[in-house]
Amino acid sequence: MPGLEKIQFSDLVFIVMIAEFVFIIAGFFKFINFYWIDTGYSLEEVQTYYPISLVNMRDYISTEKWLNYPLQLVNIFEFFYWGVLGWGIWELSDKKISFLKAFGLVAVTYGVALLFWVGIVSFLILNSQY
Fold first, then answer.
1. Rounded to an integer, what is the distance from CA 106 to the centroid of its chain?
2. 2 pLDDT more than 60
3. What φ, ψ does residue 53 adopt, rounded to 5°?
4. What is the pLDDT, as a whole number, of residue 4?
5. For residue 23, how many other CB atoms are within 10 A of its CB?
């Protein structure tokens, strides 16, 4: 990609650190939920709860334990994380590539790696269950 040869590793680390604040905000949402809203909780609820994710609707989707982790990763904060990473790549390229291409780069790199990781974790959970 033209214009990307002057990007330094420290610039990429800075963008990733900015994006990681999305997950800190998700942690605050989790804290607020268990401190003020849902005060009668169990340890399993604390471990499996993730704000604004499909795992919170598991009663309607599935009760399989191995699906908890994949459903936990389908949430609005993950989407914002991908968006911030795409925005960072778009900014670092001095807007020479479109935001959709930058977002696609995030999907091809981080998205595929995340899918691989979820597959491994789900496989390990399945093997330890049975």
1. 12
2. no
3. -130, 170
4. 56
5. 12
Q: Who wins on pLDDT, 16 or 62? A: 16
Question: Which residues, 6+ apart, have CB-to-CB distance to 123 below 8 Å?
Answer: none
Cα dist from 25 to 18, 22, 96, 130, whole Å: 12, 5, 30, 36
Q: State how far the Cα of 22 lies from the Cα of 11, in Å rounded to an integer.
A: 18
For residue 43, the SS3 value is: helix
Phi/psi at 8 (nearest 5 deg)? -100, 160
Global pTM? 0.87
Residue 47, CA distances (Å) to 10, 30, 72, 77, 90 in order: 34, 10, 11, 17, 35
CB 50 within 8 A of CB 30: yes
